[in-house]
């Protein structure tokens, strides 16, 4: 047996234990400082899709180990607005402490929804955790979808949402230089449309795919109706039954599925120190379900709005009466 083979671990050593009713599982029996063979990676990938959040306790891994782990599941992406490591920009370092408060992560979101192809997963490893606070909350958006009535599910089918990096625009000041940089980012990352209901490429389950952090409107829908519908969808992650609140410990890795869950970091620990390292894995273009809804299906005629005759909704006084 070669030295590399002797260092690898088998899928039979993996133990997966559910830790919440609707999402989340603890994975033990692995040492992530050592290589993983194809069977182990396949087992983790299947558990990741099924449980949506995987917790790997007692993993004293370095930055290179974390990057190697992420690359088992795809290419690593570089976040354009985060605190990237200077030498390896695909590694994000969160070192929040007095004088460096946490930013923009305490709202429910799926990572980087402003991209044409958002990341499929995120792996976050705890290095230093506060004595109290600093949890991360997760919500199963597949369970949120499945909790909706059949009529609402059918209504949402085919709708598309417009997403933007709006949450990160607060990082730019009103200075001429910052506004120039912001404009460059807006050209690089224009508003992108994703389905409101996303189909998971592995499980085939459907999930709500809008968030207050990134979604700005329902494409083609009248503004007030769009805002009303989005507010309803944003509140779905308030259902306590479909949440999992993770309490961090040092040397703990959490690997979550951005295609099916949303998360929010709780900032109650500041100014205590919280040091974390993160990688995100590139994903594919979100796929929806149902026939795309557009045109007059989403808007009514309004006086003063120029709409071609063929696309006009029927007005009351146009109806012919006997």
CATH class: Alpha Beta
- CATH architectural category: 4-Layer Sandwich
Strand order of the largest sheet: 1-2-3-13-5-15-4
Structural class: alpha+beta
Radius of gyration: 22 Å
Biggest sheet features:
7 strands, mixed
Question: Helical region count?
Answer: 7
What CATH calls the topology is Double-stranded beta-helix
Describe this structure in a few short sentences.
The protein is an alpha+beta fold and 322 residues long. The protein is built from seven helices and 15 strands.
Task: Explain the overall architecture.
The protein is an alpha+beta fold and 322 residues long. The protein has one domain: Clavaminate synthase-like (Double-stranded beta-helix, 4-Layer Sandwich). The protein contains seven helices and 15 strands. The strands form four sheets. Strands 1-2-3-13-5-15-4 form a seven-stranded mixed β-sheet, with helices on one face. A three-stranded antiparallel β-sheet has the order 12-6-14. Helix 2 (38-51) links the parallel strand 2 (25-28) and strand 3. The chain starts with a helix and ends in a 41-residue tail after the last strand.
């Amino acid at each position: 047996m070669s030295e590399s083979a002797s260092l690898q671990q088998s899928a039979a050593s993996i133990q997966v234990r559910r830790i919440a009713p609707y999402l989340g599982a603890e994975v033990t029996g692995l040492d992530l400082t050592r290589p993983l063979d194809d069977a182990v990676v396949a087992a983790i990938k299947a558990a990741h899709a099924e449980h949506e959040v995987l917790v790997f306790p007692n993993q004293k891994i370095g930055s290179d180990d974390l990057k190697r782990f992420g690359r088992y599941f795809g290419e690593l992406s570089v976040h354009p607005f985060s605190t990237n490591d200077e030498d390896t920009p695909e590694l994000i370092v969160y070192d929040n402490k007095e004088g460096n408060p946490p930013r923009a992560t305490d709202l429910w979101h799926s990572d980087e929804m402003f991209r044409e192809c958002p990341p499929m997963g995120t792996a976050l490893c705890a290095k230093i955790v506060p004595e109290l606070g600093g949890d991360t909350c997760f919500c199963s958006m597949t369970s949120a979808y499945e909790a909706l009535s059949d009529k609402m599910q059918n209504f949402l089918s085919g709708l598309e949402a417009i997403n933007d990096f709006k949450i990160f625009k607060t990082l730019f000041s009103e200075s001429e230089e910052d506004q120039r940089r912001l404009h460059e980012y807006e050209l690089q990352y224009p508003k992108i449309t994703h389905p409101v209901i996303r189909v998971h490429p592995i499980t085939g389950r459907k999930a709500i795919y809008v968030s207050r952090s990134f979604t700005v409107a329902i494409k083609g829908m009248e503004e007030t109706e769009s805002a009303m519908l989005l507010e309803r969808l944003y509140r779905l992650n308030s259902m306590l039954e479909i949440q999992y609140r993770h309490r961090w410990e040092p040397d703990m890795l959490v690997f979550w599925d951005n295609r099916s869950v949303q998360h929010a970091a709780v900032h109650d620990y500041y100014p205590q120190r919280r040091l974390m390292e993160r990688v995100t894995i590139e994903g594919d273009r979100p796929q929806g379900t149902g026939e795309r809804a557009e045109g007059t299906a989403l808007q009514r005629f309004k006086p003063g709005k120029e709409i071609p005759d063929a696309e006009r909704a029927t007005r009351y006084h146009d109806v012919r009466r006997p």
